[in-house]
Design a protein that fits this description.
Chains A, B, C, D: Its cofactor is Mg(2+); [4Fe-4S] cluster. Chains A, B, C, D: Pathway: Purine metabolism; IMP biosynthesis via de novo pathway; N(1)-(5-phospho-D-ribosyl)glycinamide from 5-phospho-alpha-D-ribose 1-diphosphate: step 1/2. Chains A, B, C, D: It comes from Virgibacillus salinus. 4 copies of one chain form a homotetramer. With about 475 residues, chain A is α+β, with helices and mostly antiparallel strands. Chain A folds into 2 domains: about 240 residues, Glutamine Phosphoribosylpyrophosphate, subunit 1, domain 1 (4-Layer Sandwich), CATH 3.60.20.10; about 170 residues, Rossmann fold (3-Layer(aba) Sandwich). Chain A has 17 helices and 23 strands. The first copy, chain A, has a 7-stranded antiparallel beta sheet with strand order 3-2-4-1-10-9-11. A 6-stranded antiparallel beta sheet of chain A has the order 5-6-7-8-12-13. In chain A, strands 17-20-21-22 form a 4-stranded parallel beta sheet, sandwiched between helices. In chain A, a hairpin with a 4-residue loop joins strand 2 and strand 3. The two termini of chain A are about 20 Å apart. Chains in contact: A-B, A-D, B-C, C-D. The interface between C and D is large, with 67 and 65 residues.
Chain lengths: ~475, ~475, ~475, ~475
């Protein structure tokens, strides 16, 4: 939710299950647990052994499936998707999984990530007479697979994947097989679990907990996993590179109860708060966190610093899609949005306010101001991650560089802009310490938005272009 | 939200504003901040000086007003209501404020509370030829006022209030005045604030913070406040008794950022947790709270005990009205509802689990079981209030005595039923210590549901009957 | 439909059935056949022997009941209503049947007609402390009945009916009886039928045909009919006056397949056309009628005159409620509304155009112009009823006198205004000849809107006031 | 409407306009007038000079566009479509115009007709790696055009049209041109008109009258018309064969006010009735028609025979999509569907009942029975077209041969089945006389469903296969 305020938006979550008689229902619950990864649309494709059937729509999982009849969505196999859509691709035709039928069989695709060479590939396909119906880069992969022959198999998928460049996690379903594929740098998360005899694949492990499944392992960078009634098989479509899991998944995007690369997200955030307390302590009466994503780091900061942790900001849980935003005039008169300070707590106090990140700075400024108006004596802002100075080309919809406050201002300037007594960011070292438990397992993270060091580039490109998830 | 699981449901919140040109919009935001007090229906009546106009509907404030045109709801005065409805009174005709028109003028009523003699009064009115159109006890008061003559004034309202018995907070609007009235024991909360020159009245002070208004004072027990263009006037319709504010408002119902009787709710909850840690410590590795209402007490318990506070249970924020509940079979296979344990945190640990109250015990058992399945070694349940053993007749929809686990079982039995290593409740003394700052101001609380000591009874009644809010 | 163009609007149709196990469903079909009598709202109240239950809503019968579950609307007895609402009374609370509950029983009322002294009665009731919830005059009758004692019986109903003045047909339902009442002049239609052992009452006999019931007799002026499990009983609440059935029911309002006073409506309209051909023949090539209500008269005119009857105007059957009306500019460019001329038929021809009535004249002018633009050489307008010069106070929503073209213009002026070659109206004698078969049965009609001779007046009134249906 | 009862369903109507600033609105009105050609879905694609934009949906034109904002659908050019969908193709993705975007431009297609070799062409396209997204044969044509090169021009369209076999009328829109094409036998109707300087193309001329446009000429068999800012140009993509306009368009499908091949539909139907009266007179008291499509023929029969024309059957105008069909049990008890007999007219009379056609015979039997139950002494059924004994492969969704009553029964047997006193059909000669004014213009009609003589066959086919519109 806060995402909308911040301007960091995850793009999509995928879920697949093979071999459970209530596949569609379990996919519903799995998608539900990953709702934070995309609120614009949701869909499920089931395979009842005879044909693939889709139920998709715009909106939250709840809304899309409120009139769904799961007894119509029979079959032991399903793939699902929750979608965050960028401007311009909001049509229902872009809601995934995309389902393609032909006289010889069907194929469904669900994707989390971003292809950097999508426009080029699209142009080439059209030149050969193909008609593309969506603005989704997922459709481009489907055409590449089909152009390799009517058969959807390991070979044609591998060949197609070798043509695309970017960060991606794909689920591909056909009548007799389900495929899971991860980009060669392993930037996006994708895990495999089991539920009884059934196999489950999901963007986040919280989906496994949601349905009572057990985590088995992560899909590896450059790996193509095939799941069928014969079990699970693995091939490699690209040389495995050093895994570079997206740091923002830990900092902000994933759910606290998920494990990424076997590291719990809440625990890593708490460690970020602890590292931050070591690096940048503050003289204050209490620590508060900006709900919801900064609570873990705030608890960590409080524990490390010995300051009491308090509930100084409250979030209105009922601010839904139809909430009428107060006009500028009313906001100036003091009408609050979804966050409100707790006057009885903050009045007269020196406060350490923990936030997970700052994008444009407008939200931070508003919260600091809110706290001051409620009587806070001092507000020391501590950010539990390094500053974001670069755009992401791997599937996260951030603001452009022009809008990124840290790309254009020093920390002192930021402090002045947001009106705090002091501002500090966690160092990149502190971040790595908090995330990486074991260097063998976890060779690195992608922190390109903080460091500018991009692990994947389109060959020969002069500029990194951003298209869509 | 958890309320639905627990079976404790607040009944209604009221809001009124006199003298602001954007009265309807401010009422919308005010109601929004009190959405937790009632999710079944909402309404606003505006007074544009010429006539009273209503916009009402079933559902959340967001839903009811998503197509509202505030430019049609003009006027400097408005009253609003959020409603929780008991079984049987779910029709839209029961959504408040109730608006009554006549050839000589209109009257709108909004109510939070419960009349104990509503059935008797209804029968008497019907015997005299009155036709009542709703099953709401608020309509009964309207008829009593009208029977006192066509004029809606202090006299006719006072006379009508003297006929009703119960716990109540009323807002009554007519063309030239707004009235606020509180029952003689002051069981339900009702506060007065100011926003510039405008007067505001609300069930909870969080509504004042929401719109930028300043708290002035509480409406007093037995007081009838009149607000008009001439300002604010006060009369007394009943002898003031010792104020007995509902303890459950502090324990569970109100928002943490509200002040009741000038006591902040979060702070009082944190003190409940601290008192509980003193009364009933536990050998454990961490303290966790059941979200959302028990977080404050859990922080207090952690601070007092020196144990780390952890996020051991996570709540899915996207579980909305249309969420498809998992079947019994799926739940047994491990499909979670809106609460989920964080395996990475609780695995192998001894846990103090703080909850604010136990009603039927089914939710507590489910959460304990969830934590154990996620690997918790021990679960020590600590309840931050005394046990609930009696029904409420003053406007809270609790389970019947037969369903109340504490009415029928000892603490040891409860411990066995819910499968915990140990269970302790806060003492009534501990509760009073946590709530009452100043005995002069705060002569007492109503804790009838815990102690059986009911402050208000219908004269001559042999049994306390419960009707509706 | 055309009604909306014309500005003549029937107000309401009623239907009741006693003693059929599928009472609600049959009421649905009965109301459906009377949909032309009111398109603003519809409702059914069933009596399952224990309690009265209502299902009501705004819109067409189809829309209101599309989600109705008839298995919830069980019971052998039902009353229903279709409503046309005047400006200002469009709220769903005004949709009938009105249902009033009390501790001693319930009462439902459905009404077709208009009370002339409604405002006066309403004021008196309010002075006595009654609260009225709707702007419907039907509620006034309910209060009058209740004021006569809690029992709803022949006596209290008769006494209440003697206080109201106007034209009305009521159905009143309580747990053990259904009552049907007609005003002392019998201005509005109301008939009794049988379906097996069940009794049926309806505004029009087409409702009997719709459900396979047989016509028994009409309710008589001033009669109160009681239907119960004991059968049918009749009392008289007023001296029977000469029956004065509304002439507009024959001319325009009723369905052609209904019989009113045992006279078939289509046949009477055909006779109006024949009388008109005798009174005002025209030199022409063909006769055409304005669909739908003028077709019968056009056939009659053609048959009498020997001219061929042609389909010169076609009506678009798909013009529904959401049809986007063409802007003035587009209409001037030739974009048609729901009526269109058939160029292939009218081009180069001299035409007799039959219409049932002219209210404001704007529609007639538009149709004549349309025919001319499509190539008609001459258009001779023949109106199959006398000219309307006076408002109706008995339940038909006509334009005010100021708007009535015939109240302010001579026939020659009208001819010029609408651009026809000639215009003639049927004489009042011709109308009576066409309607009245048997003077004993049919002592007269109410043609006040044509003649100014009003059969019912409020005693002592200085001006006839119009309120609502 | 009756279509649904009968089982004859037109498939689609098309409309296009080039050069009017309110193109989308005029298309709305044009489609509206052709609503009878398809009620399952509707759509408009506008061209604002920069890009093509679509607004489409399931349902009636009214419903699809009720929330449309025509100020968003700007542009001087638009094409529209109303769709009747066969089982299995009901998804919104099949609603036309289909819109295909590519990096070099867009193309929209609207189609009325049926391709007989669609399955074969679809298979060939898929073998070459194409992905088709709909089950519409219109998409097949789009792929054929694109495969001919990225340019959508006369050449690539002509080449694609020469690959398809069937009956069709296409509108194709690209940024700078609009194309209209008709199959080589001219089976489906398609006309060109003008509105000021704008060109209009439509399936029926009633669309021209609706918007005030003037008829210019029909598109010729095998002609490809190009409309652009340079005006109108014509090329021939196939040798012109003898025009064989579908006879059912005259008999039943088209609106009475349309002209097909410059023959007015109402007039041709009236002549069918007259021919029928000459061929098969009957001793009777009156002539009645089954509304709405048989009224013209009934008037013709009455005029020729000298018998009076009466309104013996009435159609309920309010039977909409959500009408709850009476159960078999209720129908047996006499509850009527949308047609009802007028007892007051038919009782005791000998009746000639005119219908335009009989498909399965069930409706005819029901109507005859209804008339008898209402007291008709004799019912002589006269059908104003020859009997239908063969399926249609050219775009009309008729019942299969097995269901066609006339394919399996003699006229005497039909008479017995439907319970009439006598049954006669119009002869094929009589039909041709009624339709064909001028043999030069109108070389013939397609009456394959009556005669079995199919004008278009897929080369080398052993069986004629039916796919979809």
């Amino acid at each position: 939710m806060l995402a909308e305020i911040k301007g960091i938006n995850e793009e999509c979550g995928v879920f697949g299950i093979w071999g459970h008689e209530r596949a569609a229902e379990l996919t519903y619950y799995g998608l539900h647990s990953m709702q934070h990864r995309g609120q614009e649309g949701a869909g499920i494709v089931v395979n009842d052994g005879m044909e693939l059937k889709a139920h998709k729509g715009l909106g939250l999982v709840n809304d899309v499936f409120k009139h769904a009849n799961f007894s119509d969505l029979t079959g032991n196999v399903a793939v699902g998707h929750v979608r965050y859509s960028t401007q311009g691709g909001k049509g229902v035709e872009n809601v995934q999984p995309l389902l393609f039928r032909s006289q010889t069989g069907s194929m469904a695709l669900a994707h989390n990530g971003n292809l950097m060479n999508e426009q080029k590939l699209r142009g080439e396909l059209e030149d050969e007479g193909s008609i593309l119906q969506t603005s989704s880069d997922t459709e481009v992969l489907a055409h590449l697979i089909r152009r390799n022959g009517m058969e959807t198999n390991e070979e044609s998928i591998s060949s197609a994947l070798n043509k695309v460049v970017g960060a991606y996690a794909y689920l591909i379903l056909k009548e007799d097989k389900m495929f899971a594929a991860l980009d060669p740098s392993g930037i996006r998360p994708l895990s495999i679990g089991k539920l009884g005899d059934a196999y489950v694949v999901a963007s986040e492990t919280c989906a496994f907990d949601q349905i009572g499944a057990t985590f088995i392992r992560e899909v590896l960078p450059g790996e193509l996993v095939t799941i069928s009634d014969k079990g699970i098989e693995s091939t490699r479509f690209a040389m495995r590179e050093q895994r570079r899991m997206c740091a923002m998944e830990y900092v902000y995007l994933s759910r606290p109860d998920s494990d990424l690369n076997e590291v719990n997200v809440h625990a890593s955030r708490k460690r970020m708060g602890m590292e931050l307390a070591k690096e940048s302590p503050a003289e204050a009466d209490m620590v508060i966190g900006v709900p919801d994503s900064s609570i873990s780091a705030a608890i960590g900061f409080a524990e490390e610093s010995g300051l009491p942790y308090e509930m100084g900001i409250i979030k209105n849980r009922y601010v839904g899609r139809t909430f009428i935003q107060p006009s500028q005039e009313l906001r100036e008169q003091g009408v609050k949005l979804k966050l409100a300070p707790v006057r009885g707590i903050v009045e007269g106090k020196r406060i350490v306010m923990i936030d997970d990140s700052i994008v444009r700075g407008t939200t931070s400024r508003r919260i600091v101001q809110m706290l001051k108006e409620a009587g806070a004596k001092e507000v020391h802002v501590r950010i539990a991650s390094p500053s974001i100075q670069n755009p992401c080309y791997y599937g996260i919809d951030m603001s452009t560089r022009k809008e990124l406050i840290a790309a254009n201002n020093s920390v002192d300037e930021i402090c002045e802009i947001i009106g705090a007594e002091s501002v500090s960011y966690l160092s990149i070292d502190g971040l790595e310490k908090a995330i990486i438990k074991d260097k063998t397992l976890h060779q690195g993270i992608c922190a390109a938005c903080m460091t500018g060091n991009y692990p994947v580039k389109e060959s020969g490109q002069t500029e990194i272009s951003y298209t869509r998830c």
